[in-house]
Each structure stands twice: as structure tokens, then as C-alpha cells.
Amino acid sequence: MSIAANKFSGIRAAMVWDPTVAEMTRRHNDSNVLCLSGDYVGIEVVFQIVEVWLKTPFEGGRHQLRVDKIKEIEKK
Predict the structure, then answer these.
(1) pTM summary value
(2) Scanning 2, 7, 15, 46, which has the fewest C-beta atoms within 10 Å of its C-beta?
């Protein structure tokens, strides 16, 4: 799902399996689409992941350079 979603301009989809990964994809990659596995992640963890992902801000700074590079690629 994340591979297909990332084919679209402006999408930064992340496959997430725990709250720590959810936090890091938001902080470092400014992910804007959350992909979860129904087979490998329990419902309790899903709620934790979604809460963390929604509440975590993008750090910017050195990470903004990476996001800017992605945006440049999308223009081509």
C-alpha cells in the first residue's frame, strides 16, 4: 500500500508497525499517509500508532532537506 501511495505527487506514505516508528516517520519524513497492516498489528497498537502519528509534529531542520529533495523529484 505504501509503495503504491508514494507513486502520487505530494504523498509521503509510511508503513508503520509500532508507535515509535509512527513518531519517527512524522518527525523525520513528514509522512502524510499512514499505512497499517491488519494482519500484523493488533487493534490496541493501531490506536496507539494513530494517536502518536496524529500528535507528532515534523521537526524540519536537517530533515527538511530530505523532504525538499523528494519534492524536487516529484516535479520531474
Answers:
(1) 0.89
(2) 7
Residues with a catalytic annotation lie at 28
Most distant pair of Cα atoms in the chain: their distance: 41
Q: CA triplet 40, 17, 52: central angle to 5 degrees?
A: 135
| Per-residue confidence (pLDDT) for residue 59, from 0 to 100 | 96
The model's pLDDT over 20-64, given as tens digits with 9 standing for 90+, comes to 999 999 999 999 999 999 899 999 999 999 999 999 999 999 999
Identity of the residue numbered 28? H
| CATH for 59 | 3.40.1400.10
Task: Give residue 42's domain range.
Answer: 2-75
Nearest partner of 47 among 13, 25, 16, judged by Cα: 16
